[in-house]
Amino acid sequence: MGLIPQTVPEVRKLILRVVWDRLTPAEQAPAWSEWRRRHRHRARERHYRGRGARPPNELRL
To answer: In a 3-state reduction of DSSP, which class is residue 9?
Structure first.
């Protein structure tokens, strides 16, 4: 299963969580990021599938 690329706010939150130890242990930040990206991927798939549409190609250059 492919994952959707990380967004700027997600990267910002990851950096904040790693740098500011009181928010969460540094080991949990990558796990949260992976969970979030997986969740976004499933939501995107279901959004298009529910409408009977195909998602646009993500590799537009």
So the answer is: helix
Measured CA to CA, the distance from residue 28 to residue 40 in angstroms comes to 18
Angstrom distances, CA of residue 5 to CA of 21, 38, 53: 25, 10, 21
The residues near 24 (Cβ < 8 Å, ≥ 6 apart) are 17, 32
What is the reported pTM?
0.52
CA dist list (Å): 45 to 25, 49, 50, 53, 59? 31, 6, 8, 10, 16
Residue-wise pLDDT tens digits, 5-47: 889 999 988 888 777 766 667 777 788 889 999 999 999 888 9
Q: Which two tokens stand for residue 30?
A: 């990558």
The ranges assigned to domains in the chain are 7-20+27-37
